[in-house]
Design a protein that fits this description.
Elements lengths: L1 H16 L4 H13 L5 H26 L2 H20 L4 H29 L2 H28 L2 H21 L5 H12 L4 H5 L4 H29 L5 H6 L3 H20 L1 H20 L6 H14 L2 H13 L4 H30 L4 H24 L2
Helix pairs in contact: 1-6, 1-7, 2-6, 2-10, 3-5, 3-16, 4-5, 4-7, 5-15, 5-16, 6-7, 6-12, 6-15, 10-14, 10-15, 10-16, 10-17, 12-13, 12-14, 13-14, 13-15, 13-17, 15-16
Length: 386
């Protein structure tokens, strides 16, 4: 039963990753269809993330009242509505009607599952969990690539919605599997801290800034990698550029898979330090002015591999660093800060690249990698002195 439940949790995280890379891989074609500037992708991404911020901030309150399994089921249902809505959109403005369910569906399930796994499972399981997020995020650019080659970008969203619906059905059938930890979960969450109390804990604020920096770089890669290849490399087809939107996601999956086998030995903090160093090496490779697109493609895979362990490690440390009674609120805040980065920083980059050119992307990514590690190291010092 335990292994079966874990399989369902992994499947739910595949569903969480599926919608995240569709916009970036499909945007070059969507931009042409809607007749809008390239930077307008940032406004759609920002709106999705804004709704996710709201969802993440209210997640601690929801977790106190609703069991994790039902949060998962309802959240996936919302994303299905959002995906179908995107597939039916005939104008750029219509997209903004469906960013509401699209974004709300992500925040609560992300916060609730991260909190559940951080409390009940090891660091290794957390890395495997986020590895499966990478599976979903890696699959969807290929779905979009096939849709662009065989049909239209709308079909990429529609086909993804069909896959999400199948996962939703499995999660609904698995509800009885969650009974094992339900009584303990109810008792723990009933007495958990709120957002205001969590913000007062020493080390929380710099950790939130570090998480913001990480997700700023990650979201920029998600949205703009395909456009980077289109704008900097000659003789690359739209289908190939769309497929290259999955390079970072593939790297993320690889990084988390490796981390899952070594995280219990190395520990979360060391994994983060190693990961950001690898990420910086990948950024430097992308920055080098090769005419061929292959070195840049390898560089983006390395960037994703380095980023891989950072997100799950920060989430898994929350109960240890800030107390189990505070973990739901802290993880909710971390998710909100992450989505603030995801909301605004890809849009900021979109406007910057319109002035400077998209070749500035590696420099932009390096800034956030440095901010990430510096804030997390400061948070560790604050935690040690608490």
């Amino acid at each position: 039963m335990g292994l079966l439940l874990l399989s369902v949790i992994y499947l739910a995280f595949i569903s969480l990753g599926l919608p995240d890379s569709l916009l970036g891989s499909g945007w070059p074609s969507m931009q042409t269809y809607f007749g809008v500037p390239s930077s307008y992708a940032g406004y759609v991404s920002m709106s999705i993330s804004f709704m996710t911020i709201i969802s993440a901030l209210i997640a601690p309150t929801i977790i106190k009242k609703v069991r994790t399994q039902w949060i998962v089921v309802f959240s996936i249902l919302l994303t299905v509505f959002g995906l179908i809505g995107f597939s039916c959109s005939k104008s750029y403005a219509m997209l903004f009607l469906f960013v509401v369910p699209y974004g709300l569906g992500a925040g609560s399930v992300d916060s609730s599952l991260n909190n559940y796994v951080a409390k009940h499972y090891s660091s290794s399981v957390m890395n495997f969990l986020h590895c499966f997020y990478g599976v979903g995020a890696t699959i969807s650019p290929y779905i979009m690539s096939v849709a662009l080659a065989k049909a239209h970008w709308n079909e990429g969203y529609r086909w993804t919605a069909y896959i999400q619906s199948g996962i939703l059905l499995i999660c609904l059938l698995s509800v009885p599997l969650w009974k094992k930890n339900s009584a303990e979960e109810d008792e723990n969450e009933r007495d958990s801290a709120g957002i205001r109390e969590a913000l007062k804990i020493r080390g929380v604020i710099p950790a939130l800034i570090g998480f913001f920096a990480y997700c700023s770089g990650e979201a920029t890669c998600f949205l703009w990698t395909s456009s980077y290849f289109t704008g900097t490399k000659e003789n690359i087809s739209a289908e190939t550029a769309a497929a290259f939107g999955s390079l970072v996601f593939g790297g993320l999956m690889l990084g988390r898979l490796i981390s899952a086998f070594i995280s219990n030995k190395l520990g979360d903090r060391l994994l983060i330090r190693i990961g950001i160093a690898v990420e910086a090496a990948g950024i430097l490779l992308v920055l080098l002015p090769f005419e061929s697109y292959i070195p840049a493609a390898v560089g983006f895979v390395i960037i994703g591999t380095g980023m891989g362990p950072v997100y799950p490690a920060i989430q898994h440390m929350a109960p240890e660093n800030f107390g189990r009674e505070n973990s739901a609120a802290v993880i909710g805040l971390q998710m909100a800060s992450a989505y603030v980065g995801s909301t605004f920083m890809p849009m900021v980059f979109g406007n910057i690249q319109q002035v400077t050119g998209i070749r500035i992307m590696p420099v932009y990514l390096m800034f956030f990698a440095v901010l990430n590690i510096s804030m997390l190291e400061f948070a560790y010092k604050r935690i040690r002195t608490r």
